[in-house]
């Protein structure tokens, strides 16, 4: 196995089992590994440190897999990690309540670059590293052995594939092409998912628990669901007896699917207003019209793709939340989220405090939101924690 020598002084993160080694931390490579090969990382004195995937096209040149020298990184190793991850999701998948979740979450499940989402009997996969790409035949085989899915579809259209020098691809990996509409159930609510055409891998299952928490306040309330996508917060609020829900998203396809989903659940269409528009524009329009709500949900896309974008993103989050606060009745609730990994909870609270000052409002944080158990945070990889939110009472 080809050896990669770590620069002296760069050992700490590796010893703490952080799975990334940046190219700048590498002293030299003893040989010519192909991208995606498993290599052995050694320290400056030649002692074993870890095994990992190599890629000279990526800023993260090594993605570490195993810290025990005696363990062989073979097909069995990958099958074992897949099986561990799948077994860990058993508690989420309850008959008739929820049959969609993330089965494998990349580094957090010890499989750097592999994401697998389950949609009823179908699987959507993202392959984001050359190392995982090489192991896909055995990973697909293991998923078939464990779950016998109707289809496995590769939804690897993420920009991170380009960082590894991989082409974007959308192909059937096993079984048939997934149908245009796959019906799933989450929190007892039915959704149509378009795996091939939808955003991300089709659905944002990371908000499953947070939708339930917000809905628990919605009975009899006038709700505004901003960045609604296909209606996660809208449908949970309707199920809890909201008086009305207004859903705003810029994607016409998402809004059309949301309307389908309202019908699919036999909810009262008269209670739902959908607006296919830019949220920032629409919130200003509500303000001009003097429209107020009891609950405002703000679940925007990732504003800060990296730490360097955090300042600009913080201003955008502040402005969005300021507008949201101004549209609430006295004592109303703002459920606000950030899925930017670069934004931590402390900074997010600070952003909300600025927004409150600018809006001339008083804000209490009454609950905190995080990502659910099928998006685990590995103790040695804090970067895996990305979703956070605050439930605010606004006066
Ligand atoms: N709350 C949703 C997930 C939101 S994902 C759920 O529970 O499923 C973010 C959404 O924001 C996407 O649907 C995207 O189409 C939408 N979006 C992105 N930028 C937007 C903008 N400027 N105005 C309105 N919607 C936007």
TrEMBL record:
Keywords: Cytoplasm, Methyltransferase, RNA-binding, rRNA processing, S-adenosyl-L-methionine, Transferase. One of its GO terms (cellular component) is cytoplasm. Gene3D superfamilies: PUA domain, RNA methyltransferase domain (HRMD) like, Vaccinia Virus protein VP39. One of its GO terms (biological process) is rRNA processing. The keyword Signal does not apply. One of its GO terms (molecular function) is RNA binding. Residues 2-87 form the PUA domain. Signal peptide: none annotated. It is found in: Cytoplasm. InterPro entries: PUA, PUA-like_sf, PUA_sf, RlmI-like_PUA, SAM-dep_methyl-trfase, SAM-dependent_MTases_sf. It comes from the Bacteria. Belongs to the methyltransferase superfamily. RlmI family. This is Pseudouridine synthase. It comes from Mucilaginibacter xinganensis.
């Amino acid at each position: 196995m080809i050896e990669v020598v770590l620069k002296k002084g760069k050992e700490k993160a590796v010893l703490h089992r952080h799975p990334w080694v940046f190219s700048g931390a590498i002293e030299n490579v003893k040989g010519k590994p192909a991208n995606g090969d498993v290599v052995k990382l050694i320290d400056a004195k030649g002692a074993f440190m870890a095994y990992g995937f190599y890629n000279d096209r990526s800023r993260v040149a090594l993605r570490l897999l195993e810290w025990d020298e005696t363990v062989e990184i073979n097909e069995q190793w990958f099958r074992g990690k897949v099986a561990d991850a799948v077994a860990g999701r058993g508690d989420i998948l309850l008959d008739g309540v929820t049959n969609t979740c993330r089965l494998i979450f990349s580094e957090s499940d010890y499989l750097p670059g592999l994401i697998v989402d389950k949609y009823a009997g179908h699987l959507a996969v993202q392959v984001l590293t050359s190392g995982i790409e090489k192991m896909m035949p055995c990973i697909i085989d293991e998923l078939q052995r464990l779950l016998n899915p109707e289809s496995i579809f590769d939804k690897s259209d993420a920009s991170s594939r380009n960082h590894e020098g991989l082409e974007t691809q959308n192909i059937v990996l096993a079984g048939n092409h997934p149908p245009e509409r796959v019906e799933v159930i989450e929190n007892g609510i039915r959704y149509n998912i378009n795996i091939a055409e939808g955003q991300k891998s089709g659905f944002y299952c990371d908000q499953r628990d947070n939708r339930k928490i917000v809905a628990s306040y919605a009975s009899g309330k006038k709700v505004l669901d901003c960045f609604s996508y296909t209606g996660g917060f809208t449908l949970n609020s309707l199920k809890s007896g909201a008086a009305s829900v207004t859903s705003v998203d810029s994607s016409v396809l998402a809004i059309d699917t949301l309307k389908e989903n309202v019908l699919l659940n036999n909810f009262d269409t008269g209670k739902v207003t959908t607006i296919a528009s830019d949220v920032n524009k629409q919130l200003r329009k509500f303000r001009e019209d003097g429209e107020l709500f009891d609950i405002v949900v703000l679940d925007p896309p990732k504003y800060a793709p990296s730490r360097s974008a955090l300042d600009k993103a913080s201003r955008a989050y502040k402005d969005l939340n300021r507008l949201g606060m101004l549209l609430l009745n006295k004592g109303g609730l703002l459920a606000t989220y950030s899925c930017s990994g670069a934004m931590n909870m402390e900074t997010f609270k600070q952003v909300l405090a600025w927004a409150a000052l600018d809006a001339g409002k008083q804000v209490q944080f009454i609950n905190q939101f995080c990502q659910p158990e099928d998006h685990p945070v590995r103790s040695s990889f804090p970067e895996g924690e990305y979703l956070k939110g605050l439930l605010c009472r606004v006066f």
